[in-house]
């Protein structure tokens, strides 16, 4: 009877092989022929492959216990002719210290600030370096030995432009005389201020870009023309309709200014602001925002809405980004590089670094059918790459784990899982590992 039924069209369904190939990967976003991650951390996909992102590099100071309280920020006193760059640290109480390499500890400089503090490199009339510490108790000039009060303007919003120091107050921008950051006296062509009353919120940041200084309020962007004589300074309002501005990157020659708003990341070119990295789940909450640069990558640290501090690393074109596990504590851009506080030491952040203990280079695509609809059997996963990696595959109930080493740039594992949707997780074995391609082989039922 069974043979008769089979002959009338009741034979077992035919199984067909379906291959899915990925030649590119993306941490967020993607496109045709690209496998986009739904999670993970520390993986840079800016060249289309999965590679290790930024990590902790050399120790700049191996012990900051002499700060007594945790560090808030790091700065560098620039070297003059024949000198060395000096590492400075401000602790959570506002006390400032200098690192003594001979003793291997930070030495208190007998001065403190009201936080927050913005450090701006300026120069004296004789060309010798100074650091202007703009803080809640005024603007202080440091010459490597002593601190001098230059202005009683209480603000950490400041920048240097065309040999002047600019400092913002609640409703004005104050500026020094050219080549004299100690002279803020009001005059026709030397020091003075520009009054800027507005209902668009406080000034969050001032950043030079090209031949102007841009003022970022909570809900507006202004252009300050301040390149010539003070009597010719002028201000113009620019169009902006994005979310509340929370933090702004330093301007740099040839680069756009980045800023973090309540609705995501923006890039500003001097005329308008454009939302970038739209696929990246950036959900900022309250707290300080800090930007930096490390080995060609721009970074932003912020506290998300759950209260977790996040460190986001952007690719070169700012089209995508990934989250890094490198510590964002006391993150500071200095002449010594991008620095942070990590396990009691001052460390750099850069390419080829190490991850904090327990963290991994992870790329995961969760709960996806990989473009093959219906129930199927996952037969083979082939990868191309360098070094080695750990692989996890899952169908929502069963999980398979594999460790592999690439031989002649190739490796394969056999998930042997049935289902409609699966998860794939890749963990790079080391900072020299990479995954450059993937092929998934499924058996489907016709």
What does this protein structure show overall?
- The protein is mainly β.
- The protein is built from 1 helix and 42 strands.
- Strands 1, 36, 39, 40 and 42 form a 5-stranded antiparallel beta sheet that branches. A 5-stranded antiparallel beta sheet has the order 4-35-41-37-38, with no helix packed on it. A 4-stranded antiparallel beta sheet has the order 7-34-33-32, with no helix packed on it.
- A hairpin with a 2-residue loop joins strand 13 (129-135) and strand 14.
- The longest helix is centred in the first third of the chain and has 6 residues, at 2-7.
- The two termini are 25 Å apart.
- Residues 1-7 have low confidence and may be disordered.
Furnish the topology, listing elements before pairings.
Blueprint lengths: L1 H6 L7 E8 L1 E3 L7 E3 L2 E3 L1 E2 L6 E2 L2 E7 L9 E7 L8 E6 L3 E6 L4 E8 L4 E7 L5 E7 L2 E5 L4 E5 L6 E4 L2 E5 L3 E4 L16 E4 L7 E7 L2 E6 L3 E5 L8 E5 L6 E4 L8 E5 L2 E5 L4 E4 L13 E5 L2 E7 L5 E6 L6 E4 L7 E3 L2 E6 L2 E6 L10 E8 L7 E11 L1 E7 L4 E7 L4 E4 L3 E3 L2 E7 L5 E12 L1
Parallel strand pairs: 2-3
Antiparallel strand pairs: 1-42, 4-35, 5-6, 7-34, 8-9, 9-10, 10-11, 12-13, 13-14, 14-15, 16-17, 17-18, 18-19, 20-21, 21-22, 22-23, 24-25, 25-26, 26-27, 28-29, 29-30, 30-31, 32-33, 33-34, 35-41, 36-39, 36-40, 36-42, 37-38, 37-41
């Amino acid at each position: 009877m069974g043979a008769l039924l089979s002959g009338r069209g009741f034979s077992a369904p035919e199984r067909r092989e379906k291959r899915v190939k990925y030649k590119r990967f993306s941490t967020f976003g993607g496109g045709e022929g690209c496998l986009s991650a739904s999670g993970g951390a520390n993986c840079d996909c800016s060249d289309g492959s999965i590679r290790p992102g930024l990590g902790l590099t050399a120790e700049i100071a191996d012990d900051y216990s002499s700060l007594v309280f945790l560090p808030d920020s790091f700065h560098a006193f620039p070297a003059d002719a024949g000198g060395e760059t000096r590492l400075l640290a401000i602790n959570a109480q506002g006390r400032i210290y200098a690192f003594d390499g001979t003793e291997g500890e930070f030495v208190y400089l007998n001065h403190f600030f009201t936080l927050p503090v913005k450090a701006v490199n300026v120069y004296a009339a004789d060309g010798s370096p100074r650091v202007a510490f703009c803080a809640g108790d005024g603007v202080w000039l440091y010459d490597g030995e002593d601190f001098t009060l230059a202005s009683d303007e209480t603000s950490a919003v400041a920048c240097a432009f065309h040999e002047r120091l600019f400092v913002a107050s609640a409703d004005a921008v104050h500026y020094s005389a050219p080549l004299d950051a100690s002279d803020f006296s009001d005059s026709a062509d030397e020091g003075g201020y520009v009054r800027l009353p507005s209902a668009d919120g406080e000034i969050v940041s001032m950043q030079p870009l090209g031949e102007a200084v841009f003022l970022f309020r909570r809900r507006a962007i202004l252009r300050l023309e301040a390149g010539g004589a003070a009597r010719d300074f002028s201000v113009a309002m620019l169009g902006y309709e994005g979310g509340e501005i929370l933090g702004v990157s330093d301007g740099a020659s040839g680069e756009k200014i980045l800023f973090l708003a309540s609705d995501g990341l923006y890039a500003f070119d001097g005329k308008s602001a454009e939302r970038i990295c739209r696929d990246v789940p950036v959900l900022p909450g309250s707290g300080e925002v800090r930007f930096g640069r490390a080995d060609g990558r721009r970074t932003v640290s912020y506290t998300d809405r759950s209260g977790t501090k996040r460190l986001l690393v952007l690719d070169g074109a700012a089209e995508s980004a990934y989250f890094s596990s490198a510590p964002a504590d006391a993150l500071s851009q200095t002449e010594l590089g991008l620095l942070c506080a990590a396990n009691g030491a001052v460390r750099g952040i850069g390419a080829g670094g190490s991850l904090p203990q327990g963290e991994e280079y992870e790329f995961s695509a969760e709960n996806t059918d990989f473009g093959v609809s219906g129930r199927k059997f996952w037969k083979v996963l082939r990868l191309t790459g360098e070094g080695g990696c750990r692989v996890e595959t899952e169908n929502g109930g069963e999980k398979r784990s594999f460790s592999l080493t690439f031989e002649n740039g190739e490796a394969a594992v056999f998930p042997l899982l049935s289902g409609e949707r699966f998860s794939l997780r890749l963990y790079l074995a080391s900072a020299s590992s990479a995954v450059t391609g993937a092929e998934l082989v499924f058996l489907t039922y016709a």
